[in-house]
UniProtKB/TrEMBL annotation:
Keywords: Membrane, Signal, Transmembrane, Transmembrane helix. The chain crosses the membrane at residues 196-219. Residues 86-166 form the PA domain. Residues 1-34 form the signal peptide. It comes from Aquarana catesbeiana. This is PA domain-containing protein.
Amino acid sequence: MAMSVIGACRSLALSTWLLSYCFVHLLCMDFTVAEKEEWYTAFVNITYHDPTSGTNRTEKSECGRYGEHSLKQDAWGLAVLPSPQDRLACDPATKFPVPTYAGRWVALIPIGNCTCRDKIRHAALHNASAVLIYNVGFGNDTSTMAHPGIEDIVAIMIPEPKGKEIASLIEKNLNVTIYITIGTRNLQKFVSRTSVVFVSISFIVLMIISLAWLVFYYIQRFRYANARDRNQSCHLNNRTFL
């Protein structure tokens, strides 16, 4: 009877350890797959006439990042800044001084004072072909903009240096044409803080259960050893008596 109890305890302890490992491993895999972000880079090509050299200049770089709700397609047009009265384009009445000869145009707006969604919506209301938001104050960093409800226009974020470069050319009264093309698809997986806490607590609980079974196992083993010693002692006493 004692041997069967000990064997059962040993099996339960081993099973609990294996269950702990498998359970935590599966939880980590599940949460990693469940929480992911898909985003696309964008190639930004700018073309303008350099009055100093008298030649057309073209620069292309994969510096943009499509918005979460943006159309994932190419776009192009003449770059246009919001009116000087509202460079941040936070007012629905913001004007965009689009030249009469420009058929398609792209709004160039700095980040700040209102959401990117508002800026994109205001430019879209003026029939912009695309919107470039440049990330002022964050250097070369870009992020995936969220603009739910504004999903029928190309909207990308570009780094601050590139945005200021284009804005500087426009302020010099140069016609800058922007071409946006789809870049690289990226899939980023991550584990949230809540998931990590949940997995940690689950692991601790399973460890406690496992340790409890181990303690129970050694108690039973100790009791069995004592009982065996008593039986042997009684057996020797009986033989001596006989």
